[in-house]
Amino acid sequence: MVHAFLIHTLIPGSTKLLYHQIYAQDSQLRHVSDNGVIGERKRCLVECAAQVHSEYQFRRAVLGRSVEDDVQRIHSEDTLPEFELGYTRLEKDSPFNTEKIAVWLGAGYTCFTLICEKTENRMLAETVLKTLIRFLQQHVGLLTSPTEACTKPERISVILDKFLPQGNLLFMNHRVIRQLEKETESIIKQ
Predict the structure, then answer these.
(1) Which of 91, 116, 118, 168 has a Cα at 20 to 30 A from 129?
(2) Which of 185, 146, 181, 148 is CA-nearest to residue 67?
(3) What local confidence, expressed as pLDDT, does residue 113 receive?
(4) What are phi and psi of 125, to 5 degrees?
(5) Which PANTHER family does this UniProt record tie to the protein (predicted)?
């Protein structure tokens, strides 16, 4: 089960949450009061994004790769860039009531994160995330312009509803993916 999907920045400094979709019940998030449910949810997701951002920046420093190289590669080629893949453990009470795992892919200035149960199939989560990224880039252009996440949330929502229905990771072969792509394209064109 996926509890949340996040799109956030990877720029040096603090991360910014560009888009989020929550699939978890309110009881999954810690310290949620009736008055501040929305604010607390967003704060918890920003905390998760900050942990992923920190891991990404550490890896970049160790490998000596620059973000500018990735950005230049994204703009010069029509293919998806080489993503940095990571799994970040989210401790109990940090920010969920139970331990979770964040599966993330980042390149350039943008990172895509799935927050899953710690027992979730990580390979399946990675495959679904790669499919989502490919389709999001095709219809929204998030890698070349991350701010599009703020201006086209309805397109992102349609794509998530098809490829990650109600937070469930789907086993998909190429025929299922093609069928979901056709359905999504017909909805987006309306």
Answers:
(1) 91
(2) 146
(3) 96
(4) -60, -40
(5) AP-5 COMPLEX SUBUNIT SIGMA-1
5: how many CB neighbours lie within 10 A of its CB?
22
CB 114 within 8 A of CB 131: no
Structural domain including 77 reads 2-189
Task: Please tell me the total count of domains within the chain.
Answer: 1
Peptide bond into 165 cis (omega under 30): no
Q: Residue 47: pLDDT above 80?
A: yes
CATH number of the domain that 52 lies in? 3.30.450.60
CB 112 within 8 A of CB 10: no
Cβ atoms of residues 148 and 136 within 8 Å? no
Count of residues in the chain? 190
Considering the entire predicted model, what is its pTM? 0.85
Q: What is the pLDDT of residues 61-111, one digit of tens each?
A: 887 776 676 667 666 666 667 788 999 998 877 667 788 999 999 988 899
Residue with tokens 């996040």: 6
